[in-house]
Amino acid sequence: MEDRNCEILVEYLKSILYDHEIRKPDLEKLDEPFRGLGHCMETLQENLNHLARQAQLVAAGDYSQKVSGLGEFSEAFNTMTTQLELRRSQLKEESKKVKDRAEVIEAYNELLVEMTRRRNEWVLVVDAEKRSVVYCNKSDEEGYVHTPECDKCKRKLHFQERILNWKGESQWNWDFEDACGNCYNVNSFPVEWRGRHSYVHIVSDVTKEQQEKEVLQSKAYYDAAFGVRNRRFFMEYMEHALQEKKTVTLCYLDMDGLKFVNDRFGHLEGDCYIRTFVEVVQRHFRRGDILARVGGDEFVLILTGSLEELAVGKLQSARDCFREENHKSYPVSFSYGIYVIDGQTNRATLEEIMQAVDASMYEFKRKYKEKRC
Questions:
Q1: I need a surface site. Which of 170, 214, 276, 315 has the fewest CB within 10 A?
Q2: Residue 121 and residue 206: Cα distance in Å, rounded?
């Protein structure tokens, strides 16, 4: 009889543990103390059913479920649900941050694209591997290019091939001029564009700025009043010639009596004296020879090559012509000194050269005065 009670309880326990539909025996038909044990197993069944429902709720995301009466298991279960609830709160917060960040990035990208579309510069994105334009702010359909080349870029930017072949690894700023004489400044740098290694090129048409710069530079190097180069040009030209070891013949010209003319007849007449002098000197030399005014009555003439004998002959001829063609009530003339700079052997500085040619000019003045006396 005892074995029969044990067999019934064992089958009941197996059903509790393994069966979906639990086969519960009639516990009242069991003998004591097996009947009490059966009621304990009945309580276990109810607790396990309750725990299963709680586990299902936890799996569905309800982390408020708590278990009691199961000792260490209850403690472990409750700790797990608490941690899951904390982790869910953290994930919600992180998800919100990611969403907010994505919205900001999307809005920023839309703003950036709209700003680039309104800019005068060309903004080109080139796929580094395919060597094709994938974005152009001047293109239609919000700038995205679906063909290997952007037609608008090809028509407007004659140097597009140079941009497509750029392989720089860091930011680079470069300038160049196209076949039509237009000047461009390009700022290029690598980026990740839509998950691909790409290059961004910001192209600015600086033709107008370059032209204005050249005009200003031209004005900076010219004596506008008399149409010749100025001292600044002369100093930079000579420094460059010395560095490049060029051979040049330097003539130092000093106008005689300009202070007297300014004091006696006024500066307008003095300016007329200078213009006549400049016209006569330029008439006797080649178009490519450089005449520069380096002081009030001081000029320099730069001839390419070792041409001392030729320079002496031409200067003497210009001096005679200047005096003979004079129709003023005052005498006109100029003195000169000559110094040949041999690019291969010269060791003198520009200051030393100027001292030497100045001394040569004063020696000419001295000899002329002696001859006149």
A1: 170
A2: 10
Torsion of CA 273, 278, 279, 282, to 10 degrees: 160
Cβ atoms within 10 Å of 48's Cβ, excluding its own? 14
CA angle 299, 300, 301 (to 5 degrees): 130
Distances (CA, A) of 301 to 85, 223, 309, 340, 343: 92, 14, 14, 12, 17
**Residue from 313, 333, 334 nearest 323 by CA:** 333
Angle at 122 between CA 121 and CA 124, to 5 degrees: 145
Do the Cβ atoms of 246 and 340 come closer than 8 Å? no
Indicate the SS3 state at residue 119: coil
For 319-339, write each residue's pLDDT tens digit.
Answer: 999 999 998 899 999 999 999
Per-residue burial over 237-247, b = 16 or more CB atoms within 10 Å of its CB, e = otherwise? bbeebbeeebb
Of 22, 81, 12, 68, the closest CA to residue 49 belongs to: 22
